[in-house]
């Protein structure tokens, strides 16, 4: 019997095949989807990097990575072996003049098949790589290219990359990935808002006092220190993931779920973000860096120690931002964004804090209710509402929680957002990928913050690993009379 989600035969070519992303995310995601029978043995995954490996040596590395990062699917030996048979390896320096491309050309011998190039290399290579693909006549009219983040480190470099890739691919064939858009909980924001008209009626400054968007991690920089130290939390997480989540929360209803209808609405939000002046950066943006501390009962080193260097680094591992959206819907609601490494908990969530009652009639009033959208680790929704305290004596009101976890409600099939996004790229559905103007609008908003920091207008504040960031982070909300979620009483 045909599987409902199955897709046509395809050639998927990964540049950066020996890298962290390919081993930890891309190939495990493909194995899980193969295990779920979303595609067949006629697919080919052609992996390219400079390192000299035979295809069999490479497959052994992949086998080990899959056992670690997709253990359940990898335990099915028959499926694992069939999957590994789809994986080819080509050793090629794709940006060096005179490299021998014949190995890759031999694999790509059918221009009628769906062809997707996935660039999991340094972004500096994206444009030269696309030029090399064109030189070797490997771009067919139905070829797509997937670009990993970050697209540039500034507005200027983003435009350079977009121009460079755009010389060889039309915009509709360029898929800029943001794995947060592949998260179930992020996509559910669309359903929550636009399939629940009653809820959408509350979705504005009239009822919402503030919105918090948090992406907190307990991990440090791990092996990605050299990249991260150049990037920092603002470029690594805010410019892309957090702003995309903010767009999903704040946008107006798109005309349809078609890619450009969604992207047009997201773009309007990005363009409506209140531009940051240096003075506003000073008062509305906190930057921090972790010192040694304890997480889950374990001592963990400082950022400098994680980097393995003696000298101090000026890179932020934490950012918190207070901003506003210049629109009739949201003008009176602050949005707080925060992200950081080595924080107290791994959690990605959105909190919409309701406004208090205008005229309280109860002698005790609990804190105003809120809606919490949990994106990770356990996806779900919580609605905190005031209820009558049923215990005897007087009429008291206290908060109760309506809780819906996806795990109890549904059979979750997608374990990682890359599973969905890789297959969307193969199917040719760009709705969850970022358009050029969105990337550039995000950079336009981020750049004044970076410029301010460059002129040392904001201090880099230390925070102990295992905390919720620098102490001043609380004050950012306190001035609006607000609390971060972890500080709220039920
Ligand atoms: N790792 C992660 O969790 C995430 C990564 N990303 C992005 O994904 C991309 C890849 O990241 P990551 O895997 O961590 O990086 P790595 O440094 O681990 O891997 C880079 C890969 O590129 C290959 N490579 C470098 N130069 C060439 C070349 N000239 N021709 C062919 N292959 C080449 C390297 O292999 P070799 O040396 O053998 O050539 C290696 O396989 C980056 O843009 C990163 O920002 C985005 C989100 C998360
Ligand atoms: O893109 C990135 O995201 C991860 C966090 O992703 P999540 O899905 O675990 O929330 C982050 O660790 C990494 O630094 C960043 O590049």
UniProtKB/TrEMBL annotation:
EC no. given is 1.1.1.49
Q: Please provide the record's keywords in A-Z order.
A: Carbohydrate metabolism, Glucose metabolism, NADP, Oxidoreductase
Tagged with keyword NADP: yes
The active site annotation covers 241
Q: InterPro entries recorded for this chain?
A: G6P_DH, G6P_DH_AS, G6P_DH_C, G6P_DH_NAD-bd, NAD(P)-bd_dom_sf
Q: Quote the catalytic activity from the record.
A: D-glucose 6-phosphate + NADP(+) = 6-phospho-D-glucono-1,5-lactone + NADPH + H(+)
A Pfam family this protein belongs to?
G6PD_C
Would you kindly state one Gene Ontology biological process term found in this protein's UniProt entry?
A: pentose-phosphate shunt, oxidative branch
Question: Where would I find the Glucose-6-phosphate dehydrogenase NAD-binding domain in this sequence?
Answer: 13-188
* Keyword Oxidoreductase found: yes
For the ligand (substrate), the binding residues are 179, 183, 217, 236, 341, 346
Which intervals hold domain Glucose-6-phosphate dehydrogenase C-terminal? 190-485
One Gene Ontology cellular component term attached to this UniProt record is:
cytosol
Q: Which GO terms describe its molecular function?
A: glucose-6-phosphate dehydrogenase activity; NADP binding
Per the record, the similarity remark reads:
Belongs to the glucose-6-phosphate dehydrogenase family.
Q: What does this protein do?
A: Catalyzes the oxidation of glucose 6-phosphate to 6-phosphogluconolactone.
Protein name (Swiss-Prot/TrEMBL): Glucose-6-phosphate 1-dehydrogenase
Organism, as annotated: Acetobacter malorum
The organism that produces this protein has a lineage beginning with: Bacteria, Pseudomonadati, Pseudomonadota, Alphaproteobacteria, Acetobacterales
